[in-house]
Design brief:
The complex is a heterodimer of chains A (about 250) and B (about 190). With about 250 residues, chain A is of the alpha/beta class. Chain A has a single domain, classed as Aldolase class I (TIM Barrel), CATH 3.20.20. Helix content of chain A is about 40%, strand content about 25%. An eight-stranded parallel barrel of chain A has the order 1-4-5-6-7-10-11-12, surrounded by seven helices. In chain A, a hairpin with a 2-residue loop joins strand 7 and strand 8. By secondary structure, chain B is of the alpha/beta class. Chain B is globular. In chain B, about 55% of the residues are buried. At the A-B interface, helix 2 of A face helix 1, strand 8, strand 9 and helix 6 of B.
Chain lengths: ~250, ~190
């Protein structure tokens, strides 16, 4: 049986792991390769590296980091942050990334999704969507959730999938950093609409939140950062409890 | 031991190289027929679209070289699919090593089938690997179960998770991304 995935997310800035609370003030949470190895050993199903310092000169540092990660771990990993072209993606995949996650650049130019899917296959193209509720509508935001757009979550999700997204990573800006649980209503609606896997992101605080996002939100995977980085939740224990709650895990 | 990974411009081959390095095996990337023929073990990777990958193989005559290899050959993911008779992806013919066809999932479940699923395998590749071990898969097309099937997996319907015929092997899953059981499988292949 296909299992639900647990995905620690490592926010990378200048080669180090950081985690934003509501995407603002950052705290240092360690060496990315060391953390990645620890998570792989503990039973993480996948990892996401989000380069929040993405700029031209930083891109090379990222490629080197990915190579070190790919050498060290034997589970899949996705990389995102500042990706805006076929060339960007080619470099990341060549350095060992399994999937890339695109966000703002896809909103600005949706044809990028189609180009990447055609060149590299839909299986390695993740479209990340940051959204927050404004007057009862989920409004897509850019640049780490700072800039609102005209786009609405569900319509954008439909378009991203029809253009070739192989997976959606949905972060609720309203839930991110709050540790009050995932946006399960929106997640369930997404899961009903689209036929690709959905990764839930934003709001993990307790083991119950993971149970809920799989059982109520129908998420295929759940992503979290600080609860894992600061050892508030251990992955082996989380998996045992999920299993006891009849949620299939590895 | 000399391991060659066939490099024909299809997908992420670094991960396989790194996985072999973790097992102490140095692998060479090559599209040169002679170098491939001289290897002790050949890995035939592939990520991407079947018909364009097949065109790349044909352009360098690798479509003729691969089926005639006599040492252990391991096709991974698209590599395995291309070793079948045909694929619905781009309606292409395959190398015809394995006697089955590759079809697109027609299911209400999500496609691609992505993540860790249980695999029941037998034979040399699966030595010391418990039944129902989890392997990592990501694919939208699958090889039908056939006489060459040595491992099966179920996603709505059962499909071939691994195939074997003579010196040819193939896995739909990615052993290089499947944690400890994946490493065991690769070691089993290198032991052949």
């Amino acid at each position: 049986m296909l299992t639900k995935r647990i995905i620690p997310c490592l926010d990378i800035k200048d080669g180090r792991t950081v985690k934003g609370v509501n995407f603002v003030s950052l705290r240092d949470a360690g060496d990315p390769v060391e953390l990645a190895q620890r998570y792989a050993e503990e039973g993480a199903d996948e990892l996401v590296f989000l380069d929040i310092s993405a700029s031209e000169e930083k891109r090379k540092t990222l490629a080197q980091l990915l190579r070190r990660v790919a050498h060290a771990i034997d589970i899949p990993f996705t990389v995102g942050g500042g990706i805006s072209s076929v060339e960007d993606v080619a470099i990341l995949l060549d350095n060992g990334a399994d999937k890339v996650s695109i966000n703002s650049s896809a909103v600005r130019r949706p044809a990028l999704i189609s180009e990447l899917a055609q060149k590299f296959g839909t299986q390695c193209i993740v479209v990340a969507i940051d959204a927050k509720q404004i007057e009862n509508e989920w409004v897509v935001h850019l640049v780490g959730g700072k800039v609102p757009t005209e786009r609405k979550l569900f319509e954008w999700a439909d378009e991203a999938v029809s253009r070739g997204a192989g997976e959606l990573l949905f972060t609720s800006m309203d839930h991110d950093g709050t540790k009050q649980g995932f946006a399960n209503d929106a997640l369930r609606q997404l899961a009903e609409r689209v036929s690709v896997p959905i990764v839930a992101s934003g709001g993990a605080g307790t083991v119950q939140h993971f149970i809920d996002t799989f059982a109520l939100g129908n998420a295929d995977a759940a992503l979290a950062a600080s609860v894992f980085h600061f050892k508030e939740i251990s992955i082996p224990e989380l998996k045992t409890i999920l299993r006891n709650n009849k949620i299939p895990v590895r | 031991m000399k391991v060659v990974i066939i490099d024909y411009g299809a997908g992420n081959i670094q991960s396989i190289r790194f996985a072999l390095e973790r097992l102490g095996a140095i692998a060479v990337l090559s599209h040169d027929a002679e170098e491939i023929q001289q290897a002790t073990h050949v890995i035939f990777p592939g990520v991407g679209e079947a018909s364009s990958a097949m065109e790349k193989l044909c352009a360098t005559d690798l479509d003729k070289v691969i089926p005639t290899l006599t040492q252990p050959v391991l096709g991974i993911c698209l590599g395995m699919q291309l070793m079948c008779r045909s694929s619905e992806e781009g309606n292409t013919k395959g190398l015809g090593v394995f006697d089955t066809e590759v079809l697109r999932f027609t299911t209400d479940l999500n496609v691609p089938h992505m993540g860790w699923n249980t695999v029941d395998g037998s034979g040399n590749l699966f030595l010391n690997i418990p039944q129902n071990s989890h392997f990592y898969l990501v694919h939208s097309y699958y090889a039908n179960v056939c006489n060459d099937t040595v491992a099966s997996c179920t996603y709505d319907i059962p499909f071939s998770a691994a195939l074997a015929r003579d010196n040819f092997f193939g896995t739909q899953f990615h052993p290089e991304k499947s944690g400890g059981v994946g490493a065991t499988l690769l070691q089993n292949f290198l032991n052949l």
